[in-house]
Structures are given as C-alpha cells and as structure tokens.
Design goal:
single chain, 340 residues, alpha/beta, 7-stranded mixed beta sheet, 6-stranded parallel beta sheet, 26% strand
C-alpha cells in the first residue's frame, strides 16, 4: 500500500495539541486544533498514546530554553504510540508500537504534546509489550538518559559501587533500578530525610540525606571512595561529588537539577588526581531496541520498578501535569495518556 502524501485528506485533518505561542506561566499551555503534521521522506508519523512530562518542557514553556527553541511550539521531548505512516522499506509498519525521544523534538520541531507527531525514522525505537501505555509512557527519556549515563558515561559493572546524586529525580530513580539489575551497590541521595523510603522502594542500598556536603558521608560508607558517581544535581556540587570517588573511578555529569550548568573560573586541578570526569547527553540511538526490550520484560516480570508519580488522562490536564513537575513533591514521572 502506498503511503499518504501531503495532498491527502489525512494530512489535512485536524488534531488536538498543546501549543505554547509565547513564554509564560501555566496559562501559556493552550489546547488548540491544529493540522495533523505532514510526514517528510525519511520521517515517521506516530499516533501518540502517551508521553512523559519533563522539566525541560517546563523550561520551554517559561522561555528559559536555548535560542534554538522558537514559538509557537508544541512541546514534548518524548512519546510512545503506534506508527501511523512510514517510508516503505523502513522496517516500520502502521500499527507498530514505538517510542521516540530527544533529537530536537519539542524544541526545534513540534513534539509529543499532541495526537500525532512526526520524527526522523532513526529516532524511533520499536517494541512489543502488553504493559499499559501509562507505564510505557513514563520510560523513554528517563530510561535513555539513565541507561546512557550508566553505560556510555560510566561503564558500570556488577559488583561496583555507584553514587547517584539527585536520587529522587526520575532519572535518578530509573538509574537506581538499572544499576541494581546490573548488580551494583547503590548509594543515592535526597535532600529530605522523609523521602529516603522512596529510594529504598526502588532498591537503593544506602539512602543518604544530601546537605550539600557529601564527601565525608560517602567516605564513611565506602572509605576508599565509590567506583562511579552519577551527577544529576549540577555544577554547584560537582567538586564535592568528585571527592566521593576512588582513584581511577569516574564521575558522569548528566543533569543540573539545581540549575547550575557551568563553574565560574573552572580549573582542571579541581578534579582529584586520578579521578575521571565525563558527561552524558545522548540521543534515542543510545538506547538500543534490545536494551529497551529487556527493560520492558524486567518491568513485566516485576524485576524493575517504574517510578510514576501521577497519570493524567487527557491533553486538557497538561497544566496540572506541569504544575506537578514544578512542585517536585512526588517522586517519579508525570505521564499523560491520550484516550482514543
């Protein structure tokens, strides 16, 4: 069967979408009827079933993103759903379950806060699962970031000790479950003692309250220093995180939950002798389809836990979803599902 073209009625149909026409508060998230996006050659059109809500989308709505983000814009850096259109011979077929994320999605081109989204074919991960869409919708961005940080960034191995700084974030919680699956001992942080149980629930061995000065606390647990550290809080605490790691251990800088992405008057000599510092900022291709399939299977079998904070059941609840992300009071992912 030939694929629809831009001249088809299908391409001219309308859909519901969340549109940010200008930066602002939650009222800047407007629900509108807009044309269904036209698929370009080499791209795929996906019927969106669910998407996670992320801090970067809050930043886009507020106007704090990089200059590459222009308005009006449909946000959404990740989504899951089924193939609606794809190039013949692409290996993707209508109705196939897929995930997509990153790569400028929701930033330089329209994202997943909509009934349909178009993305480059190379940015699509096919999968098969009977898990519900609200579970699968929580996974792409946090799994890709956590998986890439632990593998590409840290090369984490079973038997090693991992520190996750920023442990109650969605990436931190996801990284903890993956690290335990790998066979690592996990130390993870929270700024609030009453949230330590949230870390234990996902398998963290040693929850630690982070008051901004961790090195002494971590060395009390692991005198020689941890093998690896995943930095999610940011540059404001990076020097302290570096001091928690053993010689020839590695720190991977992945996020800046505290908002500081750079260090004024940085000097390489702030890095302890023999400690390695790297970073991770990957794309969909960094999460291979077989790795995603293994994670889905582990969830289905109860070996991996998905940290979902709350599920919202229509685009009309997007303001509540972003407000939930901004409040940061509930651990886990905020997920919007779209009912047929």
């Amino acid at each position: 069967m030939s694929q629809p073209t831009a001249a088809d009625d299908t391409a001219r149909a309308m859909m519901r979408a969340v549109v940010v026409t200008h930066p602002g508060d939650l009222d800047a998230l407007e629900i509108k009827d807009v044309p269904v996006p036209v698929r370009k050659p080499g791209w795929v059109r996906i019927k969106v079933k669910a998407f996670g809500v992320n801090e970067s989308e809050v930043t886009t709505r507020q106007g704090g993103s990089d200059p590459e983000v222009t308005y009006p814009r449909i946000p959404g850096i990740e989504g899951v759903g089924v193939i609606d259109q794809a190039d013949p011979g692409s290996g993707l077929r209508p109705g196939q379950q897929v995930a997509t994320m990153m790569g400028g999605m929701g930033r330089t081109y329209d994202g997943a806060y909509a009934q349909y989204v178009t993305v480059p074919a190379g940015q699509v991960i096919p999968f098969e699962t009977s898990l519900p869409w609200d579970v699968v919708g929580a996974l792409p961005e946090m799994f890709q970031t956590a998986y890439g940080s632990l593998t590409t960034g840290l090369g984490l191995q079973g038997g090693q000790t991992l520190l996750i700084r920023g442990g109650t974030s969605t990436v931190g919680l996801s990284a903890a479950t993956m690290a335990k699956e790998i066979g690592a001992t996990v130390i993870s942080t929270t700024r609030h003692a009453d949230r330590a149980e949230e870390l234990r629930v996902v398998g963290v061995d040693h929850p630690v309250v982070d008051d901004g000065h961790l090195a002494e606390k971590i060395r009390a647990l692991v005198p020689q220093g941890v093998d690896a550290a995943l930095e999610l809080v940011g540059c404001s605490v990076l020097a302290d995180t570096l001091r928690t790691v053993r010689r020839h251990g590695t720190v991977c800088f992945t996020g800046a939950l505290a908002g500081q992405w750079s260090i004024p008057d940085f000097t390489p000599f702030m890095i302890p002798s023999g400690v390695r510092l790297t970073s991770y900022a990957g794309e969909a291709a960094d999460l291979p389809a077989d790795a995603f399939a293994r994670q889905l299977q582990a969830i289905a079998e109860g070996r991996l836990k998905v940290p979902v904070a709350k599920v919202y059941r229509s685009l009309e609840q997007i303001r509540d979803a972003q407000a939930g992300v901004e409040s940061g009071t509930t651990a886990g992912k905020h997920v919007v599902i779209l009912e047929d």
